[in-house]
Structure formats: structure tokens, C-alpha cells
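USER: My hope is that you can spare some time for a protein that puzzles me. I am handing you a single protein, as its sequence and its fold in C-alpha cell form. Walk me, if you will, through where the backbone shape changes along the chain. The protein I mean follows directly.
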Amino acid sequence: MKNKNAIILAAGKSNRFAPFTYEKPKGLFIVKGEVLIERQIKQLIEAGIKEIIVVIGYMKEKFFYLEQKYPEVKLIVNNTFGKYGNIYSIYVARNYLKNTYICCADHYFVNNPFLDNNISNISYRAGTYYSRKFREFSIDYTDANVISGCYIGGSDKMAMVGHAYFNERFSNKFVELMEDEINNFGIANMFWEEFYQRHIKDLTLYVKEFAPNEVLEFDDIDELRKYKNVHMIGIGGISMSGIAEILKFWGFHVTGSDSTSSETTEKLIENGIHVTIGHDLENLAKADVVVYSAAIRKDDVELVKAHELNIPTIERGTFLGKITRAFNNSICVSGTHGKTTTTSMISVCFLESHKDPSIQVGAFLKQLNGNYRVGNSEYFIIEACEYVESYLKLFPRTEVILNIDNDHLDYFKTLDNIVKSFDNYIKLLPEDGLLVINGDDSNCRKIVKDSKAKIVTFALENENANFIARNISADKDGFPSFDVYYNNTFYKTIKLSVPGMHNVLNALACIAVCHEYGISKEDIKNALAKYTGAHRRFEYVGSFNQGVAVYDDYGHHPTEIMATAHAVNQKEHRQSWVVFQPHTYSRTKTLLDDFAKALLDFDNIIITDIYAAREDNIYGVSSQDLVDKLQNTYNKKALYISDFNEIAKYLKEHTIKNDIVLTLGAGTVTNIGPLLVK
């Protein structure tokens, strides 16, 4: 076999793909879960090609990672990409032309075309017969399959689709002709096929036919996206807003509606997304698809109208699944508690190691200046919610399961149903996937046997876990330090900048994932030290009364409340004050006693009205019931105060220096903090 190499043309700007190409070059688009150019590189390597020249230009820095990732790749720069045609890219790579495959970065080869049996080492151009009209070069050829002519466009003919192969004799002549003519008027503006046609009598090139759909070329943005105009009902939700921002960044036209104005909806508007507070059926006039959150009722005016107009409607989880399908490595973080924090920790570690991930997290993260990030790699780190089993619509390569507990009982009804749901979730993983799971959690241990993927465990107590924390201590702020052991061998000492034992466990899950993805111990250590928490995860709001510290936390489940109470008590303080807003009537009714027990570790307790979210009060429960439970069953004083201004007034009158105030819950209780520290 002749020693072969390859040249991949990746310098062009692909203006037809704007605005997608404002984000990244076309060759870095993800199709069917793979980066286009990386799929080609892998296929070339599989065929034994050890020298792959990639000619870059537009957004050249986006391709720099290829040299580190693939030793076979060498990058060369065509700085004239905006001025000349691709003949000039071949010209700048002319010293590498010998027995050479010529490829374009945006090709998708269904089967590996480089595993050919070209025993005679003939030069050829790949082609496909199209019975339709096309914009590629059409081919005229002889009975011996020698190309006799090529022209831009055609119909019912052989089209130049895919790669070419130049043998050394062809390459030498091609280089000679280029060097003679490249500076002549108009030559540098050509496609290489036009230059070949100009010298077709001196250059023998055969046609090698491929079946239709065996080689895919994407010449139009509509071939990559089905929907141009997306309307989102409930756009102010944390996940919905992140999806909206990602879609806008990718060039979609996005509109949305929500029942109430919020900081999130205001940010969306500032970023150029049209948001209506309340219903506006005019929003549907140009919609190609309507995306709605699980919290949206079936009788929602806009949703009903979309059905009447036969506009496709997709639930948020399903739509997010479509996004995850586009990535080769979707890392999905799930569990009843700790999803946001762990997703955030993994995200900052991937950023620290320059892996350039895309990210969707359930809270504002300062490292992202938001709750999403559009990266330029195969990695998508996502917080995967179990409510209404939306995580079953994802396409994960890696799953992290932090814990399995009683929650969302309005949907699941029983803990057994929750366990069964997570069991179905792990079955989504491919055999070459990764399952990172809590070895301390009994419900996690019930399902782990059903996974075919690689299993890595983390724990605080289970000594048989792969990753375990030992020698745990905390400073005056409650920030833990601990030694990580991997398979009973010392791994690294970690210092966190967020409080609580629950965050040690979250960090272990993060470390397990990052280790499996090849992130260095130093990058993990540095990233976790820098991580100061996501929005509303024991977040410091400010102080009042000359030294009363105010924190805000999203916790709305008894297990989360106990973890947060432990974090509070690890901090140096005089007395703790909690203002708790129960979340949903169903959860409050079902877990009333558990909520009462979880609140006992606070010195002073204020309960405000239940945040209804998506529910009507068919359960006959109120916040006063929780106050009565605390007082009558556990002899713990608690106050019920409905009005937020009255709560702020009471706290200002009764707290003193070195007290801690915590506003707690998934609803509007977060608005109390600003009333205190303004």
C-alpha cells in the first residue's frame, strides 16, 4: 500500500450558514452526535492515515484543540479565507500533496470511505447520482469512468459529492499548475474543481460512485434545523430560559410568554428575545413549533390555540432531549437533591481544564454569567430533572445519580415508583456509557445492578465505594477540607468554598466524573476551590443590624433543609433564624412531619404561605398546620407570618449582631433578603 495522507479543507466562513457560523465554523457543527471534522479524522485514522493536514482560517482558534487531541493532525493557516476560493487552501498545503485524500470539513460519511481497495492507486473524485436538481458540481464521464467535464449545478446527473483522492503523479502535476497560475487574475478565487476543469486534459481523474445518502453534505442551514421560529410557553422557568438563550445563540428566532414578570424574563428581553407577560395569541402566528414546560396546564390558552392551528407542540424535556442528542458526550446530573450544585461543580472543572463544554444548569452561575453556556466541543453538561420523568427523554452518555428520595409525590405517588423511574433512566445509557452513583444511598444500590454501563461509585460511609472522603474538617465559615481516596489510594486533598457535608458528597460525585473524563487532579482542586456556589444555594445576600448575615437557599425538601441547617450550624454565629416557604400543597401535606423535624435544628422559625406553583389546594393544608405541628408535637416555637414586609420588620426588631437569617424555599421567599439588606 502506498503511504497516504489527507488534507481537510476547513478555512471557509460558510456564509450560507449564518448565523450558526457566527458561533463556530461549519466543520465543528455536531451532526448525529459527532463533530463533523472529528468524525472524518477518526475515519482517516481508522484507515491507517497517520498524517492529516487541516487547513484552517475562519475562527482558526476554534480548531486548535485538534492538534492536542489527535497526534496525527497538523494545522496550517490560510489567512486569505475571506478573499479567495478553496483552491488557495490546497495551494497553501501544496507541500503535503502526494498520495492524498482531499476532504471538506463539513462532510459526513455514513460509512468509512477511506477503507478503499484502490489497488491501482488511481486518482478519483467521489460522486453520487442525483435525480433531483442540485448545486454541487455535475460530472460528465466516459465509459471507462474518466471524468471528461464538470460544471456547477445540474439535474439527473452524477454530482461531485464527498472527497477526492490524488495519487502522487496527479498531485505533482496539480502543484506545478497551481504554482504557475495562482497569481493570475481570478485563479485564486476558484474552487479546486474549477481549476481542475481548466486543466482537465492534463489531469486524469476517475469518478468513484457512492450510493445516495452515503455521503452527506450540508449546504443549507435548513438541512440542519427543522424549526426556525420557536415559541416557548413558560419561558421564565430556569430551564426554559436557558434553552431559549441557547436557541437564540444558535440563530433561531425565539419568542415566549410567562404568567409573571421576573428577573429572568427581564434578562431575556434585554438579550433580544420577545417575551409577553400573559397570553398573546399573536405570538403563535409565525411559530414553527411551540415548546412548553411541564408546569403548563393542558388548558393553557396558547397551548390550546397551537393545537387548533396544527402547530407542533413539544414538552420542554423532549425538546431538551433533541439538544442532548446532538452531543457525543451528554453528562446528565440527576437525583432528588444536589443536582444544581453538582452540575455547577462539574461545569467549573471542565471550564478549568479548557474542555469548552456546553452547559445547562438550574440556577445562575457566576462563571457563566447565567445558567447556560454554548461551547465548542462534544461535551454537554446538563441538570436532568426527574419531575414527570422528563429525564427519560434525554440521550445521556454519562449519568450522575446523587440520591433517590421521596419527592414530587403529586406525580410519582410512591417512593417505589420513583425508584422504578430511576431504574428506567439508567437503562438509557449505552454499554460504553458511564454511571456515577451514590454508594451510600440504599435506593441507588437497588438499581445499579441493572446498568450495562461502566459504574463508578462515591460515598462518605461506604468504604467499598470507588471515591470516598476521609479526614473531613471545616473552618469557621463551615467550608470543608477533606482527603479524597480512589480505590483506597490517596487521590487529592480538596478544599471547598461552600459549606456543608452534603457538598462534600456533591464534590465527590463531581470528582468521579472529572476523573473519568481525564481532567487533572490539579484542575479539579483549583476549580472546586474557586466554586463559591450557584444562585440560591446557601447564597450570601448581605447583612443588616450591624452584623446580621442573610443567606438564601432553594431547599424545599426535608433532606435539603437538614443539609442546609447543618451548614448553618457549622458557621460561627449567635442564633439562627429561618424563614421557610413550603413549596406545593401536595409536598407539604405528604411530608408535613418530615418538614417539622427538619426545621428543629434552627433556633428561630418563621413559616410563610405555601408557594402553590402549579397546584390548586385540593389537599386542605396550610402553613399554619406546619406551625401547629412544630409547637404541639415537638414543643418548638414557630411563627406564621404571611406578609413579607411584616417578616422583614419582625427580623429587624428581634435579631442582633452575629445572628444568621436564612430564607428558604423554591418560591418567592427569596424576595425577603433584599428587604432586609437594602
Observations:
- The chain has 22 helices and 32 strands.
